[in-house]
Amino acid sequence: MKYAKRLQSLMLGLSLTVAGIAAWAADAAPAAATAAGTYAGTGGPVIRELNLQPPATQIASEIYNLHTWMMAICLIIFVAVFGVMFYSILKHRKSLGHQAATFHESTTVEIAWTVVPFLIVIGMALPATRTVVGMKDTSNADITIKATGMQWKWGYDYLQGQGQGVSFLSNLSTPRSQVGEPGVEPSEKRGDNYLMEVDNEVVVPVHKKIRLITTANDVIHSWSIPAFGVKQDAIPGFVRDTWFKADATGTYRGYCSELCGKEHAFMPIVVKVVTDAEYKVWVDGKLKELAALADDPNKVWTIDELKTRGDKVYNTNCVACHQATGKGIPGSFAALDGSPVVNGPKLEQIQTVLNGKHSGKFAGEMPAWKQLSDTDIAAVITFTRNNWSNKAAENIVQPAEVLAARK
């Protein structure tokens, strides 16, 4: 019974230590958030980094501290349990003349090893619960942005707040010459932001609460920025939301963190946090840019104009699946070269591009591309009908025909 009392005292001391550390960590998390700006700004993974990315938001700071102190608690428990075990094995072994204890149970010990783990779990759960509840509070947002995942890029729509009306697609901007192909070495030296750079960054103001609504138009994606403590799945047919408020300006990088297909590794997320003045300038410029790109759907284009524009649209949005040759990927993505849809009546192809197609013949299904403008859709269809070996009878599509098909 002497050893049982020692064990009881040890476990009680351990429980008080763990509870104190958990409470201290919970109180330290908000304070650490104020210092987040000191460490923020790297915005992505760095070489030989051993810990989580430096936090750039209060929630990320709380997650960082919870991670640190949960590891400390687990280490203390590990050392205490195995310390007692190895001490008992070494000091009370039979070769030293010790005899095994004859008691079969101890009410005190049984109570201790029930109560102490319960106190430890409570001490860990309280700060964790507070952080999880805070992560879900998307109310009173300054700006609301919708992020739509698609294979393999992100579409962004600024729905509310300053910047409302801004809309764009965000594609990987690392050139294929740096990436290479299966069995083909890259022909260009890889840059510092290899596979972590995009042509259109998400721009938000510092110290503003940003509500992010996520969805997808094909498979499950996931919008994740580790420095913000944000990871939210984007599920077709569903809407999820999360939020962040950056404490420091800088460029922050993440990835789609769901296995969404063969180009999964080429679907980065880049958020640029700027000052209020810089954000206003960006919004004004972006709205003017969108206004300039808003073509009159009733304009009649020549076939050469549509083919030239369609080439750009195809290489931005379609080449990953259907390939530059139009041959697609056997078993995964349909070929456009020689396709009966591309060479057939144009209305069927317009409907396919607008609404997607799920025939079940291919592992990768055709997503809907309604987010493209009428002119871009008309251009890319015209491009495919006049490229490779295709010689469609209806070889030109005007934006007005796409507009009519939307109704």
Can you lay out the helices and strands and say which pair or pack?
Elements: H1 2-34, H2 36-39, H3 58-91, H4 107-135, E1 143-150, E2 153-160, E3 167-170, H5 176-179, E4 202-205, E5 210-216, E6 221-225, E7 230-234, E8 240-244, E9 250-256, E10 268-274, H6 276-293, H7 303-317, H8 319-322, H9 340-343, H10 346-355, H11 374-385, H12 399-406
Parallel strand pairs: 1-5, 4-10
Antiparallel strand pairs: 1-2, 2-3, 5-8, 6-7, 6-9, 9-10
**Percentage of residues in DSSP E strands:** 5-15%
User: How far is it from the N-terminal to the C-terminal residue, by CA?
Assistant: 83 Å
Mean pLDDT: 87
Largest sheet: 5 strands, mixed
Order of helices and strands: HHHHEEEHEEEEEEEHHHHHHH
Query: What would the principal axes of the Cα set say about the shape?
Result: elongated
| Helicity level | 40-55%
Indicate the low-confidence ranges by residue numbers.
1-8, 21-41
C-alpha Rg (nearest Å): 29 Å
What's the arrangement of strands in the largest beta sheet? 3-2-1-5-8
Number of strands: 10
What structural class results from the helix and strand content? alpha+beta
Count of helices?
12
3D structure, described in words:
The chain has twelve helices and ten strands. With about 400 residues, the chain is of the alpha+beta class. The strands form two sheets. A five-stranded mixed beta sheet has the order 3-2-1-5-8, with no helix packed on it. A five-stranded mixed beta sheet has the order 4-10-9-6-7. A hairpin with a 4-residue loop joins β6 (about 220-225) and β7 (about 230-235). The radius of gyration is 29 Å and the shape is elongated. It starts with a helix and ends with a helix.
